[in-house]
Amino acid sequence: MNVYQPHLMNVVAVIDETPDTRTLRLQFKDPEVAAAFAFKAGQFGEYSVFGAGESTFCMASSPTRPEFIEASFKLAGKVTNELRQLNVGDTMGFRGPYGNTFPLEQWEGKNVVFIAGGIGLAPVRCVIWNVLDLRDKFGDVTIVYGARSVADLVYKRELEEWAGRSDVKLVTTVDPGGETPDWKGEVGFVTPVVEKTAPSADNAVVVLCGPPIVVKMTLPVLAKLGFADDQVYTTLENRMKCGIGKCGRCNIGPVYVCKDGPVFTAAQLKALPAEY
Amino acid sequence: MSAAPDKRPTPKGKGTKGAAPAAAAGAAATAVAGAALCLTEENLGKLVAEIVAGGTRLVAPAREPQAGVGGSADYRYISSAAELAFGDSLPRMSLKGFFLPQSEVLFKWHRKGADVEIEAVPTEFPPQIVLGARPCDTAALEIVDQVMDWGLRDELWFGRRDATTIFNLSCPVEDASCFCHAVGLNPDATRAADGMLTPVPGGYLVETCTEKGAALIEGHKALFESGDTGAAAQRSKAAAQYRADARAKVAADLQIDTTRIKEWVGDHFDDDFWTALGPRCNGCAACASVCPTCHCFDIVDEPEGVGHGARRRNWDTCQTGVFTLHASGHNPRADQNSRFRQRVNHKFFIYPSRFGEVLCTGCGRCSRVCPEGQDLAEVLACIDELARA
Fold first, then answer.
1. Contact of A183 with A149, CB cutoff 8 Å
2. What residues of chain A lie within 8 A of the CB of B303, using their CB?
3. Is the complex ipTM more than 0.85?
4. Which CATH code of 3.40.50.80, 3.40.190.80, 1.10.10.10, 2.60.40.420 fits the domain covering A104-225?
5. Measured between alpha carbons, how far is A43 from A99 in angstroms, rounded to an integer?
6. Quick check: A51 and B115 CB within 8 A?
7. pLDDT, position B10
8. What is the average pLDDT score of chain B?
9. How many CB pairs under 8 A join A and B?
10. CA separation, residue A29 to residues A33, A48, A254, B13 (Å)
11. What is the mean pLDDT of residues B367-386?
């Protein structure tokens, strides 16, 4: 088996999240591949448009919903530009799943706090649905999500769904100036909103993902709230090509993000050189 | 330029190597199994002819027919013994390209409306033979095997590895850029080789190390002579002398402890040492191209017409700015200091941490080709000195 040859997938739905962010819902063309495919929260794949190349995205859908996989991407470069041209019924390529996973089994019985900024909600959303689909196994679920503006909030319908659930505490925020007249959420950066929300560190884990600045600013706040570094999980994004530890691109110090990650605890992150 | 603010060793660039320190104890002898046979120069020519006539692709250090006097040898597919250049200097490029081509098709795609058909490439390859490989180039293959077999196996790499029989040429040692001894090899190393040729008067002493190597000899039995006992003893003596001379040359060269270097590099990610080295790197990637162990690659799509094309992997290198550049514009390695540091890190810290050995065979090509005079042997010597301090 040539490990660089992707499986073919059908685009079965195209969902515009924001003006520049889109979600593609995908199904394997080959029923045998579909039947054999399994992944866990935190893993990623190499998605390709034939003629443009491959890009690395996390699995944005939950493994508890195996009938399709979803990838959310922001228009940024050559491949994402081509991905935006795809319509329902088009064919694309997928290799994966690769990388390590969030240790959900270890989190059973614990409270789970999700913190995300911008498109950082994509990998977190996978874990959120994974936890919500196994709701009984976990304690309190808190979600703090922020974006630059109301228009930049991704997964808007799901945010509404989570807001309506009694077993989820959802706090949404937009950067100052990004609010609309009818905005009912918080106004402010993610970090101070986390501080204000003040989730308890007792018997809890945090899944934190967002632009580097959000992660960097929020880590000390979590420490202040009493979270130990091994209670805080994040997922790193480095430029990758092969996704399987060969092409040499994603090193951070001795770590291969594609093999040792993309999921790291804050404790692991702090032991690494700041080359990400 | 002012002197370094402290007395820390700083590489000065190529050509400033100090006097060689006293020779270390000789490295362990290379174990070569199998009977020692002789291949005369004349029979080497016949061997080449027989292999080529049999339809097997043959790689050897060879000179381009048009190259003239100034041309340097390179590993090439050859069709006659006239092209052989065993006596030339180290081939310009390593053997890497015969296993990881500079540009390689991973598969082809064909659009059929909204559908796409994938045309797979074979992962099995026709046999090929390498004659006269330098031990540093052959050993590199087995080092790179480790990463290619890490987790998911790279069938394109191993398909070619499995299809290839390699006979080394015991190395006469090139110049002051060589340092195979410092990274655990020696000029007559047979790591990853199926056999070895050692120059002796009138021809080569031939030894085999694997069944693959023995099979090659077996297929051309008439060309290999064992001769009478006296001649055989003389040949063995000449070969032993040749190897001892070569070993003596490298043993007197770079004296470093790669374990000590690994620890220092691992502990000194942020260090002025790297800052001083960065400006002497153009990011031209010549070092990575000629390196037998540099294996990093890019994956790109190349349309080959309307609606069809190929996905390829191309050699790539951590020495360029775009290597780690994110689509967002963020670049974790934004300056050349950090890129050169990555090169040294990957070879002498990351790879040893993962796979237990350095990602370098001491061939010295990177130092020879560097237009800025960056000399890896000297860089290592400096790190070793820092680590001892």
1. no
2. 51
3. yes
4. 3.40.50.80
5. 5
6. no
7. 72
8. 89
9. 125
10. 8, 15, 38, 57
11. 94
For residues A228 and B122, what is the distance between their CA atoms, to the nearest angstrom?
Answer: 51
The total of other beta-carbon atoms located within 10 Å of residue A231's CB is 18
Encoded amino acid at A197, one letter: T
Closest CA to A67 of A37, A104, A102: A37
Q: Does A32 touch chain B (CB under 8 A)?
A: no
Residue A137 CB coordination number (10 Å): 13
Q: Does A51 touch chain B (CB under 8 A)?
A: yes
Output the CA–CA distances (angstroms, integers) from residue B268 to A254, B6, B52, B263, B358, in the order listed. Answer: 12, 17, 52, 9, 17
Calculate the average pLDDT of chain A.
Answer: 95
Q: What whole-number distance in Å separates Cα of residue A203 and Cα of residue B171?
A: 64
How near does any CA of chain B get to the CA of A4, in Å? 6
Query: Residue B142: is it exposed, middle or buried by C-beta count within 10 angstroms (0-12/13-18/19+)?
Result: middle
Q: Do A254 and B150 touch (CB under 8 A)?
A: no
Distance separating alpha carbons of residues B137 and B187, to the nearest angstrom: 11
A90 touches chain B (CB under 8 A): yes
- Tell me, what's the pLDDT at B228? 73
pLDDT in tens, B175-231: 888 899 999 999 999 999 999 999 999 899 999 999 999 999 999 999 998 767 778
The separation between CA B164 and the C-alpha centre of its own chain, rounded to angstroms, equals 16
Domain regions of chain A by residue span? 7-98, 104-225, 236-276
b (16+ CB within 10 A) / e for B22-48: eeeeebeebebebebbbbeeebbeebb
What six digits make up the tokens of B215?
A: 């099979």
- Kindly state the tokens that stand for B26: 């000789």
Question: Do A30 and A8 meet the contact criterion of CB atoms below 8 Å apart?
Answer: yes
Under an 8 A CB cutoff, do B318 and A89 touch?
A: no
Given the structure tokens 């990575």, which residue do they identify? B288
Tokens of B266: 């691992």
pLDDT, tens digit (0-9, with 9 covering 90-100), for A187-245: 999 999 999 999 999 999 999 999 888 999 999 999 999 999 999 999 998 889 999 99
CATH number listed for the domain at residues A7-98: 2.40.30.10
The CATH topology of domain A236-276 is Dihydroorotate dehydrogenase B (pyrk subunit); domain 3 (2.10.240)
Total length of chain A: 276
Domain ranges of chain B: 37-388
Contact A275 B332 (CB under 8 A): yes
- pLDDT band, residue B249 (cuts 50/70/90): confident
Q: Give the integer Cα–Cα distance in Å for A24 and A17.
A: 10
Distance from CA of B232 to the nearest CA of A (A): 46
Residue of A nearest to B109 (CA): A50
Give the DSSP letter of residue B28: P
- What lies within 8 Å, CB to CB, of B70 at 6+ separation is none
Distance from CA of B341 to the nearest CA of A (A): 10
- DSSP-assigned letter for residue B74: E
The alpha carbon dihedral of B29, B33, B38, B44 has a sign of negative
* B67-102 residue pLDDT tens: 555 567 899 999 999 999 887 788 999 999 999 999
Residue matched to tokens 């796979």: B355
Is A252 at the interface with chain B, CB within 8 A? yes
